[in-house]
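Saturday, quiet lab. Running sequence design on the C-alpha cells for the scaffold JK sent over.
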C-alpha cells in the first residue's frame, strides 16, 4: 500500500467501528504519526464521501448516550470530549430532548440499577449513594429528588 493512502485506509478502519467527529478522527490519525498532509487528505476525502458529518454524528451519539441513561451535562461533556463543536452539541441535545424524556430515562436507569427490595430509600446513606450515582449520569437534583419522593410515596401506599 502506498504511503498516500495509509492515513485514509486507517481512517476508514476507524470509521467502520463507529462514526467519529472530524476532531476525533484527526486526533487518532495524528497519534499514529501520519504526516499532516495525509491526515488532511484523508479527512477531506472522508468528508467528500459523507463518511464523516459532525452534526449527524453528534445527533447519533447523543441518542446513544441518552438510550444508555445519560442526560444533560453528562452528554454535553462526553460529546465535547469526543471533539464535537459546541453548536453541533447543543443542536443534537435539543433535538433529542424531543425524543427522550429525562424523567422516563431516570425511571429506567433507577429500575435497572437499583433493586427496589435491597435499596432502602429511607436510609440517608443509601439515598445519598443513589443521588450521587444519578447526578453523575447528568440528572438534575430536582428531578432525582422528585423521583425518590414518588418512590417513597408508592412504598407507603403499598404498605397501607
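Result came back. Writing it out in full:
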Amino acid at each position: 500500500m502506498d504511503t498516500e493512502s495509509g492515513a485514509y485506509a486507517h481512517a476508514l478502519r476507524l470509521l467502520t467501528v463507529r462514526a467519529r467527529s472530524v476532531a476525533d478522527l484527526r486526533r487518532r490519525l495524528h497519534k499514529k504519526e501520519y504526516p499532516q498532509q495525509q491526515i488532511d487528505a484523508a479527512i477531506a476525502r472522508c468528508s467528500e464521501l459523507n463518511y464523516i458529518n459532525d452534526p449527524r454524528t453528534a445527533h447519533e451519539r447523543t441518542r446513544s448516550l441518552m438510550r444508555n441513561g445519560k442526560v444533560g451535562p453528562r452528554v454535553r461533556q462526553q460529546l465535547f470530549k469526543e471533539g464535537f463543536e459546541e453548536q453541533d452539541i447543543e443542536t443534537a441535545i435539543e433535538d433529542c430532548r424531543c425524543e427522550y424524556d429525562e424523567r422516563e430515562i431516570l425511571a429506567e436507569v433507577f429500575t435497572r440499577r437499583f433493586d427496589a427490595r435491597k435499596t432502602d430509600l429511607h436510609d440517608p446513606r443509601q439515598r445519598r449513594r443513589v443521588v450521587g450515582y444519578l447526578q453523575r449520569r447528568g440528572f438534575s437534583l430536582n428531578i432525582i429528588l422528585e423521583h425518590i419522593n414518588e418512590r417513597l410515596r408508592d412504598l407507603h401506599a403499598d404498605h397501607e
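Notes for JK: DSSP finds nine helices and no strands in the chain. The longest helix spans residues 141-159. Ask whether to fix the surface positions before the next round.
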